[in-house]
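lol forgot to send this yesterday, sorry. struct tokens for the thing we talked abt
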């Protein structure tokens, strides 16, 4: 049973990494700025999920702390970029 769980976790990690690549491609080659912002937000969310999966694989709580920090920075950057896109000024 342990082997099946390990295999499943590795498959999920690979699937998330492929989705991060697709989201990064969308952020890089999006049609407009809103599409790029959505791709960037999705890539950061998937990166947080990858960090949590790596934390499960390595049995280390350190990656959870990094994921929480990335989540906070991702939230702030998404809000700032959305504000800049809508008003063309940050504050």
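and heres what i got for the seq, position by position
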């Amino acid at each position: 049973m342990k082997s099946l769980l390990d295999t499943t976790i590795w498959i999920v990690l690979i699937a998330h990494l492929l989705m991060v690549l697709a989201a990064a491609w969308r952020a890089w080659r999006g049609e407009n700025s809103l599409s790029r912002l959505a791709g960037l937000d999705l890539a950061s969310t998937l990166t947080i999920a990858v960090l949590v999966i790596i934390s499960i694989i390595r049995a280390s709580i350190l990656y959870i702390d990094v994921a929480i920090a990335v989540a906070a920075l991702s939230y702030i950057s998404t809000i700032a970029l959305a504000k800049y896109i809508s008003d063309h000024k940050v504050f």
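The chain has one domain: 2-87. anyway ping me if u want another try
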